[in-house]
Amino acid sequence: MQFIETWISMWYDFTGKANYKMERKKETDMYNIRKVTDDITWIGVSDRRLALFENIFPIKRGVSYNSYVLLDEQTVLFDTVDASVAGQFFENLEAALEGRSLDYLIVNHMEPDHCAMIGDIVRRYPAVKIVGNTKTFGMMNQFFGTDFSERSVVVKEGDTLSAGKHTLHFVMAPMVHWPEAMVTYDDVDKVLFSADGFGSFGALNGNVFADEVDFDRDWLDDARRYYTNIVGKYGASVQALLKKASGLDIAVICPLHGPIWRENLGYILEKYQKWSTYEAEDQAVVILYATMYGNTASAADALAGRLAAKGVKKIAVYDVSNTHVSELISEIFRASHVVFAAPTYNGGIYPVMENLLADMKALAVQNKTVALMENGTWAPTTAKQMREKLAELKNVTILDAQITIKSAMAPEQEGQLEALADAIVASMDNQ
Q1: Which domains does the chain have, with CATH numbers?
Q2: Is the pTM value of this prediction over 0.85?
């Protein structure tokens, strides 16, 4: 039996065919790919072991790294993946190529979770050409010590690349959310490869299309948190990209993270319109409190109860010490009204609340109505300091009504609590 297997192997080596097929089958027998269109295949990989995206944002549901292959007269790969999922990625790529070599790699975004495999791609497919813009190749040299100049194809706004029947159009998207970012549009299948735009935290679980999942229930919060924390500062840049995209006939949006959009594109476009213009999704109140011993928390809950009694719905209350700042930022983007409640600490703002306010400034939060509550046993100054920091933000209305707590809320402050609730309700009615 061993003799027969050896002879067969030698014969296949001689013919140069069957041995390749056996090897290829071994490499691709665990692939996971999905057709996006007849000619385009998703070859992404999900990572459920990663705890922190960019080593800062908790991702309880993991994350997907999406990559796509176009089969035409030329074969085209759109972006690669993070190094942590390289094995699965290459199995998927080999399966999608169906025995063909790779002609082009288009690099829409140079962040390492999408470009880590460029060097490996070149080693595996020595004839491949790499497509990107001038800034793409500058960053490539920084990351890899080479810009692969011998195989680089430099494109700019409006340039095209023919893969055969498919023509690929390149649209620059600087600062969405890196300066080299671009998107690629296929004018045959009407597919927009959108880089980090329209992405989301969360691993894909077989259902790679947004219409295959309950997006509102299972994905919206992660999509909002992804946008607001990763792209949120660059609303003007997103607006510029949306304006360009409006001139394209788009049927499918293929992001680098999260589900693919092939139905109801207006839903996600509307979300991006709101998020990028800092318009609240909901007429809602989010109460964010910091507390040392529970007294400020009690006051925050009391305010929530008064608001509910006055008919306010969609109230959310968070302890800023126990909630990751990325979730708080997402909720601030979502809601029209935000209440900040914090004690004075070493003459300043309680540190976790101060950090939140700094993050809001860094992410250019704007267009909010806010109310303030402060606590201090002997010298409460938090409200004044929070007011000064919030005044640095664009188009933030700070209600005059505020509450100062001395250690714990006193019974005689019931009128102040009612007045603050009334002021919030009145401002909601006027919007």
Answers
A1: 33-276 (3.60.15.10), 282-429 (3.40.50.360)
A2: yes
